[in-house]
Amino acid sequence: MGYHHVDVSALEPAPDRPSTKRSVSDACGLDHLAAHVYEVAPGEEIPLAYHYHDEQEEVFYVTEGELRVETPEGDYLVPAGDAFVCEPESPQFAAVPEDGEATTVFVVGAPPVDDAHPYDPDADEP
After folding, report:
1. What is the CATH classification number for the domain harbouring 85?
2. pTM
3. Cα–chain center distance at 99
4. What are phi and psi of 2, to 5 degrees?
5. Into how many domains does the chain fold?
6. Are residues 91 and 126 in contact, defined by beta-carbon separation less than 8 angstroms?
7. Strand blocks (E) in the chain
8. Does a structural domain hold residue 3?
9. Most distant CA atoms of the chain, gap in Å
10. CA–CA distance from 2 to each of 5, 23, 38, 60, 65 (Å)?
11. Mind listing the pLDDT tens digit for each residue in 61-97?
């Protein structure tokens, strides 16, 4: 059996990110899912680029503030207490607008593969 109690605020933020990312899954050595907490200031984004995944499913659960998720189908505003789910091959870009408020988001992805591909919103297909 294995259990972990994680003080997220004590985790070192990942370097070179557009917002503060603290990895719960890395701290616990998890192999089957990626779990991260993002602290996103107004004007900051979560991903490094507008992208999609081949296999990974992602859930963005907003605990504080409001997250804007851009997709080819339109933009979604996700308030605290709501979740946004991205299936594989579904392009998305998550950020907090310049005029928004500081936002905290718990993001879970499975499987924890590095299969992100850049997405060009001006192209026809991912």
Report:
1. 2.60.120.10
2. 0.93
3. 20
4. -150, 130
5. 1
6. yes
7. 20-23, 34-40, 51-53, 57-64, 66-71, 74-79, 83-86, 93-95, 103-110, 116-118
8. no
9. 48
10. 10, 18, 25, 25, 33
11. 999 999 999 999 999 999 999 999 999 999 999 999 9
